[in-house]
Design a protein that fits this description.
CATH superfamily of the largest domain: q2cbj1_9rhob like domain
Protein name: Prolyl 4-hydroxylase alpha subunit domain-containing protein
Number of helices: 8
Radius of gyration: 25 Å
Strand content: 25-35%
Cofactor: L-ascorbate
GO molecular function: iron ion binding; L-ascorbic acid binding; procollagen-proline 4-dioxygenase activity
Distance between the termini: 39 Å
InterPro entries: P4HA-like, Pro_4_hyd_alph, Tudor_AtPTM-like
Strand order of the largest sheet: 1-2-3-17-14-19-8-7-4
GO cellular component, one term: endoplasmic reticulum
Structural class: alpha+beta
Length: about 525
């Protein structure tokens, strides 16, 4: 268990920011990326880190969701952190103008603040969130985990500042927005105003749902824009708390609907502010790793997600798979002939007809020849236990696909889930790599830093030295290699992460030369 080198106590619901920045009238600078997402017309689909997509769900104000913002491995790591610090959860509270903490009936959930930058996984999440909106990672507040159970809720509030409602007796008035007063008028509520805080301003909120809940349970509801969002494991809800002028946008007031007895909701608040939060960063945090073979932690039992919540497969895994597409009264069988990042999947039908299709659209089609998948390899993440590989042994219409894993266990999977767990065929991968080598100029191959690298597994055991922005250099060792997740690195401070070959080449330490030998 690592020792805390330096810990600055931080309460994300109390006194925020630095005392020498108490100027409520200041206007924060809105980055170009943030302006493009939230203040440049109607919301549209955007691409963010590692191919994730911002999917618009509301315009004016623009609100987005990101499926699989957190990977299964990151969810497992957060589960370890929550389990090791479960006694640190405290009842959530709100803050007043004089920065006093207020416990009230409007907020009955519990919360846990995670020390900023104390873990490789937390640093990766902070960096991803900052890159999403164009702010530096040090502008991310310490992550806050929230827990709802037994009827817990959070009534209507605004993440930027205190919300005021002045009820009026005027009847029949329509909803209006007063830009100059940062106020909206609602026909049922009255005049709704949000006051800017004296400390740091939360410009953007990214709320990540850690577990999936049934329809109608634990939703995030925006009453003034008529929007309700269902929690889905690993999905992020993204919205901007300010207008282009930097003043609060009262339309983004929202509430966490009650979670009834028998259900549990975990979420992670990621707030991006207009000032640096580096004063709250720490170098290490005591997190006890869960011993192998023990019962999973708090979060793992809740991560048994629906088949359509599984991350999409590797694109090459769907090449050569046959699907059935219904056109009018007849069905047409098509085979996935190829994939490209620009066009998507090329689906070829009988009669030489073809069309291009995106991943999510393709996965909704039924299989034309399900028995052809027998013998294919699959890879599935089991929350709290890791990733296991297996082989499809049989198919039946009654039970679906029978899969046997490398540890001897077996299970039946529906077709929709099998498609998301498929591994690329070795022959397909080899053909793709061979075509890439033939198309690449010889001079480029000679200049490439990875052209002369040995086999990937030969790099296991090598030392690495990586710079984490604003945290310094950390050394570690490559412990294993997996063709799906890449190289697994364990750092000397106990943190772990997976990296690709290109990144590994940049952080490899020079091999030590035994004494008596010349370089």
């Amino acid at each position: 268990m690592a020792e805390l080198a330096r810990l600055v106590e931080y309460n994300p619901d109390g006194k925020r920011g630095l005392l020498n920045r108490r100027d409520p009238s200041r206007d924060p600078r809105i980055p170009a990326r943030m302006s493009d997402l939230f203040h440049s017309g109607a919301a549209r689909e955007h691409t963010c880190a590692r191919g994730r997509r911002l999917e618009p769900i509301h315009s004016d104000p623009n609100v987005y969701t990101i499926r699989h913002f957190l990977s299964p491995r990151e969810l497992d790591r957060l589960d370890e952190i929550l389990t090791s610090r479960r006694r640190a959860f405290k009842q959530s509270h709100t803050d007043s103008d004089d920065t006093a903490l207020i416990l009230g009936a409007e907020r009955t959930s519990s919360s846990l603040a995670l020390p900023k930058g104390s873990d490789a996984t937390l640093r990766a999440i902070e960096a991803r969130a900052a890159e999403l909106v164009g702010l530096p990672p040090d502008h991310v507040e310490p992550l806050q985990i929230v827990h709802y159970a037994d009827g817990a809720k959070f009534d209507c509030h605004h993440d930027l500042g205190a919300m005021e409602v002045k009820r009026r007796r005027t009847e029949g008035a329509k909803a209006e927005q007063h830009e100059e007063k940062d106020t909206i008028w609602h026909e049922h509520e009255g005049e709704v105003t949000v006051r800017s805080p004296a400390g740091a301003r939360r410009l953007v909120t990214i709320f990540v749902y850690l577990n999936t809940l049934p329809e109608g349970v634990g939703h995030t509801r925006f009453p003034y824009i008529g929007l309700s969002v269902r929690p889905r494991s690993g999905m992020a809800l993204v919205f901007c708390n300010v207008k282009l002028s930097g003043q609060p946008d009262a339309r983004l007031c929202h509430e966490a609907c009650p979670v009834p007895s028998g259900s549990v909701k975990f979420g992670c608040n990621i707030w991006l502010t207009d000032v640096t939060m580096q004063a709250h960063a720490v170098e290490a945090v005591p997190i006890r790793k869960r011993p192998a073979g023990r019962t999973p932690g708090l979060l793992a039992p809740l991560l048994q997600i629906e088949h359509d919540d599984f991350p999409p497969p590797h694109p090459l895994a769907l090449v050569s798979v046959c699907f059935r597409r219904r056109v009018g009264a007849r069905g047409c069988d098509g085979r996935v002939a190829s994939y490209s990042a620009r066009r998507g999947f090329r689906l070829e039908y009988e009669g030489r007809e073809a069309e291009d299709m995106e991943m999510e659209e393709l996965l909704k089609l039924p299989l034309a020849q399900p028995c052809a998948l027998v013998g294919r390899r699959v890879s599935k993440h089991f929350p709290g236990h890791g990733v296991f590989c297996g082989v499809i042994e049989a198919y039946s219409e009654e039970h679906g696909f029978s899969v046997r894993y490398s540890d001897g266990d077996s299970e039946d999977m529906p077709p929709a889930q099998v498609l998301r767990c498929l591994c690329p065929e070795k022959a397909t991968t080899k053909r793709r790599k061979a075509a890439h080598r033939e198309a690449r100029p010889t001079e480029e191959s000679e200049r490439s830093p990875t052209a002369a690298l040995p086999a990937s597994r030969a790099l296991v055991g090598r030392r690495v030295r990586k710079l984490f922005r604003r945290y310094g250099f950390f050394e570690g060792v490559v412990t294993s290699y997996d063709r799906h997740t890449g190289f697994h690195i364990k750092y000397d401070d106990g943190d772990e992460e997976d990296v690709g070959l290109a990144e590994l080449c940049t952080i490899l330490s020079k091999p030590e030369i035994p004494s008596g030998k010349k370089s």
